[in-house]
Amino acid sequence: MLRFLYGSVHFRHFSDILWRPFMKTPARSSAVLFFFIFLFFGAFLSTRLLDFAAAPMLQGETAHKPVEIPKKPLTKVEYPLKCKAVNLTQTCPRDYPTAFSPEDPDRPSPAECPQNFRWIHEDLRPWMKSGITREMVERAKRTANFRLVILDGRAYVEKYERAFQTRDVFTLWGILQLLRKYPGKVPDLELMFDCVDWPVIRSIDYRGPNATAPPPLFRYCGDDATLDIVFPDWSFWGWPEINIKPWETLLKDLKEGNDRSIWMKREPHAYWKGNPAVAETRKDLLKCNLSDQQDWNARIYAQDWIRESQEGYKQSNLASQCTHRYKIYIEGSAWSVSQKYILACDSMTLQVNPHYYDFFTRSLMPVHHYWPIREDDKCRSIKFAVDWGNRHKQKAQLIGKAASDFIQGDLKMENVYDYMFHLLNEYAKLLRFKPTVSKNAMELCSERMACRAQGLKKKFMIESMVMYPSEDASPCIMPPPFSPLELQTFLKRKVNSIKQVKAWEKKFWEDQNM
Predict the structure, then answer these.
(1) Strands laid side by side in the 154-159 sheet
(2) pLDDT at 417 exceeding the cut of 90
(3) 10 Å Cβ neighbour count for 94?
(4) E strands in 353-435
């Protein structure tokens, strides 16, 4: 054992040599002993201190935590209506901000806009090279309901023709809310707006080497043969004549309606309710209803709006109509505002071949967002679609979910405002003249529109009013235009998807020997 501890006699010899000089006298021995005791306690103390300092680091903590200063909560400065007494002339307040920068310096950068924003570039393409002159704008006056001028963040309107119901009123209301949402950001501009359904600027009239540039005219829908500039419709801020709520409120109601109705337990038929009198194609749809002779898997209901208004709109609550696995969308005299309500229902939308589009529908893809229905053979097409969906329930449910996700996400009110902003911003870049306010125009503001309004008109205005500037300094980031190849590929994919459905449908009926 000693040999193990000390190794050999060489160790003892070395030890004697090392210690012998220090052991010659008693005094020297005491000094040496004191020295080694001092070293021993010093080493022990240092080790304990090191252990103490290292302990929190070994536990994954820092020795000194930085003091966190709590962030000051962001304050929202509201700008409510400032209505004067009834007998006084309502003026526009001057204290609403004309510029705004959010307080939070750490706010995330704006996200990229949804892909349907890319159609803004396509709608403005006819003027990309020439720009827009005052003469062009004046030519658009022929069918316009009003001229809108925005100068220094304020709106001025000159009205020409009375619009149907309150279309112009709520369109202008929506533009005023955009100015409140992004104060000082909407550029100076001047435009003409037509509130009638049908687009009128025919592209064929502006072709050829000697053709003039088309007049820029804003409206709610377009088609493949026209050049009208598509803008969000009035119903996003409410449609008081038929008790349709503002979109932000209604979108929440529709989601709650979806949650109340489990898809697999819904009625396994196609549902449509609306006014068939406005178009021959809708009257033709009535033939597909259930009868003693035939069941086309469709349940069609004619909506009597006069009777409905007298009975308090009890049978027209859109959020309570998400009870069928399939819902039919069919155009009226032109495009119909009902499309967004139908797509939002989680039901697989059966879309009768449309001729018109609005600002978001061009991005919808057949067999992904909806199921295409033949216009010239509606009843058999609807029956095949419902039979297919009931045989492939999960696939049909996914199509309905893709559409409602699109509506709840890409078409939320925040994105509607951002679409308006980018469309007006890109349009203003093309102007080759300085916008001016004519002598017949009047300044428009939320107070002038809402303070004297009554009934549902006032209720919907208050409900849809933007109370404070956006928390984000800027709208979403505008995506780039389609490249020619991208656009061609996208459109070809849509055509091929519709052809595929027609082929399936044809084979189905051939197998039925009908």
Answers:
(1) 229-230, 218-219, 189-193, 146-151, 154-159, 442-444
(2) yes
(3) 8
(4) 371-373
Which pair of tokens denotes residue 99? 């510029």
Report phi then psi at 380, rounded to 5: -65, -35
For residues 236-252, give the mean pLDDT: 95
Q: What is the pLDDT of residues 189-198, one digit of tens each?
A: 999 999 999 9
**Using CA atoms, how far apart are residues 217 and 198, in angstroms rounded to an integer?**
12
DSSP label at residue 65: P
Give the DSSP H or E segment for 490: helix 484-511
As given in the structure block, the two tokens for residue 498 are: 């519709």
Residue 130's nearest CA partner among 228, 191, 230, 215 is 215
Element (H, E) at 301: strand 298-302
Tell me the sheet residues that pair with 328.
Answer: 350
Mean pLDDT of the chain: 86
**Coil, helix or strand for 443?**
strand
The 10 Å Cβ neighbour count of residue 377 is 13
Contact 407, 273 (CB under 8 A): no
Residue 77: pLDDT band (50, 70, 90) is confident
Q: Which two tokens stand for residue 324?
A: 């069928």
Cβ(158)–Cβ(146) below 8 Å: yes
Angle at 117 between CA 181 and CA 259, to 5 degrees: 75
Q: Which two tokens stand for residue 151?
A: 């100068």
Query: What local confidence, expressed as pLDDT, does residue 425 receive?
Result: 98
- Asked if the model's pLDDT at residue 27 lies above 70, the reply is no
Q: How confident is the model at residue 49 (pLDDT cuts 50, 70, 90)?
A: very low
Single-letter amino acid, residue 74 = L
Structure tokens at 57: 């680091």
Least Cα distance to 253 among 320, 338, 316 occurs for 320
Instruction: Report which DSSP code applies to 67.
Output: P
Q: How many C-beta atoms lie closer than 10 Å to residue 342's C-beta? A: 25
* Rounded percentage of the chain residues whose pLDDT exceeds 90: 70
pLDDT at 87 over 90: no
Residues 6+ apart with CB under 8 A from 334: 197, 198, 199, 221, 355, 356
Distances (CA, A) of 380 to 294, 348, 384: 11, 17, 6
pLDDT at 60 over 50: no
Query: What is the model's pLDDT at position 72?
Result: 54
Is residue 370 scored above 50 in pLDDT?
yes
Enumerate residues 6+ apart whose C-beta is below 8 A from 184. 97, 98, 99, 100, 153
In the prediction, which pLDDT does 305 show? 75
- Buried b or exposed e, range 231-265, using 16+ CB within 10 angstroms: bbbbbbbbbbebbbbbbeebbebbbebbeebebee
Amino acid code (one letter) for 303: Q
Confirm if 218 and 229 have CB atoms less than 8 A apart.
Answer: yes
Would you state the pLDDT for residue 95? 78
